[in-house]
Amino acid sequence: MRSMKPLFFLLCSWLTTAFAADETLVVYNWSEYLPKQVINQFTKETGITVKYSTYDSNEAMYAKVKTLNGKGYDLVVPSTYYVDRMRREGLLQKIDKTRLSNLGNLNPRLLNQPYDPNNDYSIPYLWGTTGIAINTKTVDPQKVTAWADLWDPGYKKKLLLLNDMREVLGMGLKVLGYSVNSTNEDQLRAAYEKLTRILPNVRVFNAESPKSLYLSGEVPLGMDWNGDANLANQENPKIQYIYPKEGVSMWLDSMVIPSGAEHLEAAHKFIDFVLRPEIAKIITEKVGYTSPNLAAIELLPEKVRNNRIAYPTEEDLKNAEFQIDVGKALPIYEKYWQQLKTGK
Ligand code: SPD
């Protein structure tokens, strides 16, 4: 009788391929934050199909993950202050770091911080700053050196403000000399009142793709995230990024696995893939934000590494503040944000 062995092995390999081809990873990330090239390369290498959707604020992401009780997504990318909140609320699961062979590439200064001691729940993805973008074709750069300058009545209906509660209220606080993480109700009310006086200058709130509006010429100045401004500047060097003298806000977005995630193997594979120097290099170059991956930074051409929009100097970060969770003060932020946006 002929041996059944070859047939058996053929069947096994067919089954393996069939299951691998069925494997999926459901990613929920910020808009314009992950190049398609990276997703394609991951799928090509692993056979894992990536289902990808995006959000434009931590609040929108949090509401969705909370409503779904941590189910539905395998990988999400909140800012640190939401990592803190979500892990305390049981919405995240621990990451198995023994499965991450590339963890050592990360800047140790960005690890083991109070929002997630020991990085049990979060792995840094990108970080950045929030400053001012201006189109120097129509706006005199000498006149815009501070957040306070955006209140100039000469900029009526000209500004873009980020559609991001913490960024806008943070700017209001900062311009009054308070912390962007203030939890003081009087300071928050004062910031709100100050912000009501910038509204005549506001043309649009946008966090999806501010650069499109700067590039099309629809808005000549306003707030921006550094990576977004960086890409705008690469396309049109007249669009510049300014570090306002009151100080920028700083943030770090991290990869986390929600508590109800189903594709754990795929999620860990993806995190480790992103941590590879050559992949992290593609991400920082293509999306314009700052990489926490030291091995990737070493691979960057000098021109990119010395680009102050993505890689700020110490001087640029003078007076900068890192956004942290505001705990019980969050409803106060929400109340003033709602009032500012709707007038109610
Ligand atoms: N389009 C990507 C934007 C990423 C911004 N992340 C952090 C915001 C913190 N308020």
How are the secondary structure elements laid out?
Layout: H1 5-22, E1 24-30, H2 36-46, E2 49-55, H3 58-67, E3 75-76, H4 80-88, E4 92-93, E5 123-135, E6 159-161, H5 165-175, H6 185-196, E7 202-205, H7 210-216, E8 221-225, H8 226-235, E9 239-242, E10 249-255, E11 257-258, H9 264-274, H10 277-287, H11 294-299, H12 302-305, E12 321-322, H13 330-342
Parallel strand pairs: 1-2, 1-3, 6-7, 6-8, 10-12
Antiparallel strand pairs: 4-11, 5-8, 5-9, 5-10
Can you offer a commentary on this structure?
By secondary structure, the chain is an alpha/beta fold. It has 2 domains: 5-126 and 252-305, Periplasmic binding protein-like II (D-Maltodextrin-Binding Protein, domain 2), CATH 3.40.190; 128-250 and 312-342, D-Maltodextrin-Binding Protein, domain 2 (3-Layer(aba) Sandwich). The protein contains 13 helices and 12 strands. It has helices spanning 5-22, 36-46, 58-67, 80-88, 165-175, 185-196, 210-216, 226-235, 264-274, 277-287, 294-299, 302-305, 330-342; strands at 24-30, 49-55, 75-76, 92-93, 123-135, 159-161, 202-205, 221-225, 239-242, 249-255, 257-258, 321-322. Helix 5 (165-175) crosses helix 13 and helix 6 packs parallel to helix 13 (330-342). The chain is globular. The chain binds spermidine. Spermidine binds at residues 30-33, 79, 164, 166-167, 225, 251, 253, 323.
